[in-house]
Task: structure prediction
Amino acid sequence: MINLIFKIASVFFATIAVLAIGIIIYQSFLGTAFYEKNLHITIDSYLSTLRDHDFYRALIGSLAVAALTLLALPIALLAAIAIHKIGVYGARVIEPMLIIPMFISPIIWGFAWLYSYGPAGVFPNMWGDIYGLIPTGIISALIHVPNAYVIISTSILGIDSSYEEVARSHGARALLVITRVVLPLIRPSIVFSAILLFILGMEQFGIPLLFYTSVGGLVLTTYIYQQQVLSITPNYPKEAVAASILIYMAISLLLLQRYLAMRLSRRYTVLGSRARSIAKIAVSPVWRGVATAAMLLYLILAVIIPLASLIMRSFNPLYGGRGVFSLDYYITILSSEYHRGMIMNTLEIALIAASLGTLACIGFSISITRSRNAFESRLFDMVSTLPRAMPGIVIGLAFLWIYLFTPLRPILYIPLGIAIAHVTAWSIMGTRVLVSSLGQISPELEEVARIHGANASITLSKVVLPLVKRAVLISFLVMFIYSIRDYAIASLLVMPQTMVVGAFLIMSYGSGEIGVVSAISSMLVIIILAITIVIFRLGWKPYG
Amino acid sequence: MCMSILYVSDLVKRFGSVVALNMDGRSLSVEKGEIFVVIGPSGSGKTTFLRCIAGLETPNKGEIVIGGKEVFSYSKNINLPPEKRSIGYVPQTWGLWPHMKVWDNIAFGLKIRKMPREEIAWRVRSVAKSLKIDHLLDRYPWQLSGGQQQRVSLARAIVLEPSLLLLDEPISNLDAALRDEARIWLRETIKNLKITSIYVTHDIREAFALGDRIALISDGLFRKVGTPSEIYRSVDDPVLASLLKFNIMKGRIAGIYRDSVEVDIGGATIKCTASSNLKEGAEAIIYFSPRDVVIGDGDLELDVISITFLGEYYEVMAEISGKMIRIYTDRDLARRRVKARIESCTASNVFT
Result:
């Protein structure tokens, strides 16, 4: 029974997601560690954590980084208008360059920025001191531009050009059309992007760790990391309170987003059943040239130079980025059993996570789109989204506790342990792809199969899955990418025998192994770029 | 229980608090080889009826027997899944699986039944030949025209030799020109194969052309069941009247005779046949076809409001005693006020 397998996978991961969020919140209401005897529910941990000076600093740090991450919004907005409405030259090349960085992990971006504009970078201190709260926030903003760009693009492409054409023929100039017609119509997507950016900024771990901790700064994620990993006796209640507060804030923001989506959708609905026509606003070639130049300048400074510096550094043993070309670092990595094992672990975990994750995604998406029981459909929709409210570090913490103090302990020492946490965190990504793909299949195709003799399992395997096989493959690859780019979850779950690249990068921070770090990061970037290109080729659309 | 192919009784289907189908206290049977057309406006419950028979919806009450086998019984807690009901199905958009060639589409149900390969090949070929699609077996559905797709969908359903064939507006997606041809072809094909069929549509012309019997459904209730001519001759229902574009007028019974009644429509009286027990002085509704208004002589005075040339005839909108009626005539009317009479009409006291 093939559908039973999907059902079991989805129920298992739904249960474990609830368990993960539950254990964190449960622990936050206990005075002592949850594995001790004589437990009782209390808010003492909240009170004592709120009196902790470091916690305050971390909270304020998180909010500040989140607020600064909002700087991504104007850049994303201008980029979306430049590409979809003004029509920059070479948009086919420029747009993927804008979107693909989304798949590269923040920790690798961190090293890329460090090796480009850091004190020992290719362009040393070009923008001044790269450490501190403000640089942390700005870098966090720059690496999250794609996340806002895809939301705003969806919205811009949803506007029928007749709105703009009418404004144009009634005498409005191009700029006026953009400010008076386009911008007001996409206002909801600007609000959504802002909320998303705030959540992403608050959950940021790698960037603050690299650029803020070194100057003594704290954010909630690094606070949790320090409490768990760097202190001799982890204070469970305190970690749980900090993690819970992150969860509460994320859940409130996600609920706000849902509420606004429901309220605003009526006021701003511009989509009719009629086919839309989407056209650029006619502007002079000079303005298109200016927009193209601005886009290129942004991409060169914020994407190409950092990534190129990272890759250059991996081929260059000399400090400062100018010197002889050498493959030494790559040879070191490939000849070291430790590093080779680490790369193999990363790929193995990604393979397990992508395979299990695909089963879960299919299970979730079928329950969401095909369940005849409205409650079941809603429940799976909600539960699969739940981990979105948990930053990687919090998911790592939850799984560490689940594994340490339940009979599941043995899997902490094998790749499956990290893989299960990865599936829980990111099955929503694949589920979304499959839900939209399943939504396009007319129910009649399945009904005919049922009536003509196929039971539910045969209908699924012979009709439904073959029709969404591309989406299944895309889900698999997306899960694979998210697994190999992970560093936050692994940083808490990793054991010597399950060491992965992401956790290694976190641990190598400050170790001086710049060459090895840059070479491993470069290898990861290349793998991610290759898979991303395949995903694009398969017809994956980031928006629209 | 009778020897019919389909027997349905007391079927009720609710969606939340909305009753989509209500056959409580009623039963319906379809005889072997019969084409039974269910007609109704959109949202009337006709598709719900079809889906309940197919097993795609679970009724809240009642029973369904197909080919002598009880497939659903609320009281006995029987509910066979769709695949166990021995049914063929042609959905509105034909439901051809785009990833399978025509051959695999048709052979699907046979393969599931684990028939020997030679028999599958023989059956697919003979059905394809009889439906004149044997040259298309190696193509994908998207390489076919609408008419061809509809044939493939029918082939896929009848290759299983089902006890009952369900057709859900299968020709509504075709162009108007193809539709007339498809209607004739479909009736001939189904009749030749002697397959008992339930055909759901909202197009009255389709219903008349295809059905051995027609059932009118609206608001989830079966209002009339009869042969096409019985149905056409007794239009006394507002839903049926609007499907047929009949005129509906309110009036008062002015006189009752042996085989007719006189209805006062405010200023003029019209002679109609009575469809139900009417009392003198009572309110009544009269129904008449736009073709049954003869212009030129008669007691009625009409004010012509608009005239539209529709090619074969003129559609005239005219006012009579302050009410608008539709008339089809072959004459081009120039005058604003004309005399007319209504040749045939039905009076009824049904208010819906």
Observations:
- The domain at 6-238 of chain B is CATH 3.40.50.300 (Rossmann fold).
